[in-house]
Backbone:
């Protein structure tokens, strides 16, 4: 399972959103979020932006790309 899949599930649950709620808000089919969270599919860059904006997080955070510039 990708870091994105794990992070999406964690962020969604932390925000108390169901997969269906998120899917509907983003205009996806009912299984899209389940497929992302299981690692069967990954979003396009445009969809990744929509998901990050919806939860108010950076795309880097969503995909697990955190680094220290020191």
Residues:
């Amino acid at each position: 399972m990708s870091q994105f899949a794990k992070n999406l599930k964690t962020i969604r649950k932390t925000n108390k959103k169901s997969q269906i709620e998120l899917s509907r808000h983003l205009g996806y089919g009912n299984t899209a979020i389940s497929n992302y969270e299981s690692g069967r599919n990954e979003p396009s860059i445009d969809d990744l932006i929509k998901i990050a904006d919806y939860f108010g997080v950076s795309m880097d955070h969503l995909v697990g790309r955190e680094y220290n510039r020191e």
